[in-house]
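Working notes for the structural subgroup meeting. M.R. asked for a predicted model of this chain before we commit to crystallization trials. I am recording the input and output together here so anyone reviewing the notebook later can reproduce the run.

Input as submitted:
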Amino acid sequence: MIPHDAHDERDPELPGLLLRTERDALIPLLRARPEDDFSRPTAGCPKWTVRDVLAHCSSALMRVVERRYEPGVFSPEANDRDIAERADWSTERVIDELERGMTEAGPVIARTRGAVDAVALGEWIHAGDVREAFGEPGAYAGPGLPHALRLLARISRERDLVPLHADLDDLDDPLRLGGVPGDRPPARYIGGAATLVRLCSGRPVPGTTVYELVGAREEELNLFG
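Returned structure, recorded in token form:
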């Protein structure tokens, strides 16, 4: 259950909790997949394979762990360089680095006063990209979903996204996203939580998915622009 005002106060432990929860779900899945699966394309990042996504995730987390924030960090160009640096690594080595990052980044993020909280949310969404590429059910759901929604709500407010009142099929309480309503009344979403995650992260929504969005365009909900 997500409180109505879940995004109004930062919980410094939340990003780490999300990362550890996802680590426990994702890493065993990765270690059980055959090597060919890591060459599959991903819908969330069409230019990247599963392996590329994992290399990006592991490198981003290790930057946080090691506090390496040079100019342009996390830009598309920097992301591509990080992936290229791992091109000769074995897949097992990439997964090992990812597991370490998901374990060690939480305490570091907790001390940043929110500056890199979005990295944890991005990692969880990328894990959904990987699960979807593998054909796993519930790609953007699972045990980390409640933590991800809390983080999504607060970050959406900090970035002053369009105000949104979300009535989620799979949660008892509504979720409030985006900035403080002004002249524009809050938009209204009715549907599944995983579909809301897709909309807020710019991921494709399956054509058979049923949801209702009134008062905003889908692209206005995209947290990552």
